[in-house]
Design a protein that fits this description.
Low-confidence stretches: 181-189
Mean pLDDT: 88
CATH class: Alpha Beta
Number of strands: 4
Distance between the termini: 33 Å
Order of helices and strands: HHHHEHEEHEH
Shape: globular
CATH architecture: 3-Layer(aba) Sandwich
Length: 189
């Protein structure tokens, strides 16, 4: 979605308008973006989707799209983080508008306050990184997104505690993915 926004495409403008007010894009809009993206050459050997699917309907759409393209079954990684921790992390983050690098006052601080380490641009705070918007989005998550986890069968869903440092969580994820055996065929229905 960020790439569509950066490209200034019609889809990107639709998504940006929703994100700016803290809302989620419709399933149809997000699905169109996903289909467009996974059709690119750099996805033919596989890809990682971050924050998708967000609804059971999107999960069903993804299953169908993957099956049609002969991709393997998806594996979902869920980072379990307490809500208060998430709120604290989000309301204290800053982003470089040029390169997209993310900083956080709690964990990943820039070398110079308010300035990107990579390109020297002034960091910004996203319009939807306000506590009331974050809490509203978390309530929507509990109602709409959490049910996606039950859509996936055993062995296709991995939970990692995200209530640790980024380095620790990365090590846990790397260990899980390193030992995981991906199945390359869809089960017979």
């Amino acid at each position: 979605m960020r790439a569509e926004i950066a490209a200034g495409s019609e889809l990107g403008r639709e998504v940006k308008a929703l994100i700016d007010i803290g809302k989620f894009a419709s399933d149809d809009l997000v699905n169109r973006i996903i289909l467009s993206r996974i059709a690119n050459e750099d996805c033919k050997e596989g890809f990682i989707l971050d924050g998708y699917p967000r609804t059971v309907e999107q999960a069903e759409f993804l299953d169908k799209a993957l099956r049609e393209r002969m991709f393997p079954l998806p594996t979902v990684v869920f980072f379990d983080v307490p809500q208060d921790t998430l709120v604290g992390r989000i309301v204290t983050r800053q982003i470089c508008p040029k390169c997209g690098r993310t900083y956080n006052e709690l964990a990943v601080k820039p070398k110079v306050d308010g300035v990107c380490d990579g390109d020297g641009a002034a960091l910004i705070t996203r319009a939807d990184d306000k506590e009331e918007i974050v809490r509203e989005r978390l309530a929507i998550y509990e109602e709409v997104t959490r049910p996606v986890l039950s859509h996936y069968p055993p062995g296709r869903y991995i939970e990692i505690s995200g209530d640790y440092t980024p380095a620790y969580v990365f090590e846990e994820l790397t260990a899980v993915l390193g030992t995981m055996r991906l199945l390359c065929a869809w089960p017979q229905v």
